[in-house]
Here is the input.
Amino acid sequence: MKGWGWQGEFTLEAVRAHWNQVAPVYDGWNKAYDSTHFQRFEEGLKHLDLQAGMRVLDVWCRTGNASRYISAACPEAHYFGLELAEELLWRAHQKYPQRDFVHGTMVHLPFASASFERVVSLETLEHIPNPIQFLHEVHRVLQPGGRLVLSTPPATAEWMTALVDRLGVNHGEGPRRFLPSKEVKMLLAQAGFRLLLHRGTLLIPAGPRLLRRWGQEWLDEHVQGSFLAEFGIRQFYICEMAA
Here is the structure.
């Protein structure tokens, strides 16, 4: 890393190496910031609209924490987690041995076309050197009428993430490029998705619960749909396959 953020191009191999390196401390650090970390799963569940028998792909799944939320919300759904880093995958198997986790890359998903009714992708897009290739793969494995729930930080979050990386107060985000919401929407459309909802979240990611709740209420009531929503450090995109 140079300066205050990642500069230039990166590879999936570099991403894999980073997450293998931080795997031993990954869950410990996230537990220290649990309200911010686990918000991705709580918010994602609101938009998955799960039903019994649905096949749900979580890409990429890290240590499998989303499986706990999905299985609790709909025990009859069939969860599959895909992970790039072998060390994170091992920990997912150790924590949730009864669930299905597989190793693979995000640009060559090891599944047949039209395999899933739902795909959840939380904080993944920014770590992929060629994001449109990933989105095309998600489109390929979704069934007609399937839904993608995707979250990713906006470009405005880079300064905060780079500062956190420099201070060493968590596991670090590794190689990445945070995309402006306008670019994410363009890529989703190019990949064949129809955007149902775009929502900025986590205006205030830390601090007292009441302050964080006020920040989200302010986002929701006053600036959703405007450029100011870009300051929510986790942006959600709810999409369906375009007709």
About this structure: The CA atoms of residues 88 and 239 lie 28 Å apart. Confidence is low (pLDDT under 50) at residues 1-5.
